[in-house]
Design goal:
18% strand, 136 residues, 5 strands
């Protein structure tokens, strides 16, 4: 899969899957930019203040949100997910991405995403705090 960086903010990078099929519901770059601006300016500080710091395996201080139809292919109601394996190299049992990354469907209602980004980011924070920081 190839994805294009469509926006970056102080706390996040937004990528859009390059193989999105045409769909009336697809988010566009401007939508993602607005979402990540709000995430960076409001959501990030609120959640880190409550739950602690996220992982930062690449040292850039930002998390990655990849908007891809791969989630739509899973079926059901999956709108997003976080996979801890993306933090680790393959020799550490990960998938080799070495990125603080979450995956989101690009076909939900725009009003749904603020909550979705916060939810998936909380998974990333929780894994970092429980498994990496506290060796849980």
């Amino acid at each position: 899969m190839e994805a294009t960086l469509v926006t970056s903010s102080s706390r996040a990078l937004g990528y859009l899957d390059g193989a999105l099929p045409n769909a009336a519901k697809n988010l566009v770059a401007a939508d993602i930019k607005a979402l990540l601006s709000r995430f960076s300016n409001e959501t990030y500080e609120m959640l880190t203040g409550i739950f602690g710091d996220p992982s930062d395996v690449d040292g850039d201080g930002r998390v990655i949100f990849l908007f891809t139809h791969l989630l739509d292919r899973v079926g059901g109601y999956t709108a997003g997910f976080y996979v801890a394996e993306s933090l680790f190299s393959t020799d550490q049992g990960g998938d080799g991405k070495r990125a603080d990354m979450m995956y989101l469907s690009p076909t939900r209602l725009l009003s749904f995403y603020n909550t979705l980004l916060a939810h998936e980011f909380q998974h990333l924070i929780n894994f970092n705090q429980h498994a990496l920081v506290r060796n849980g």
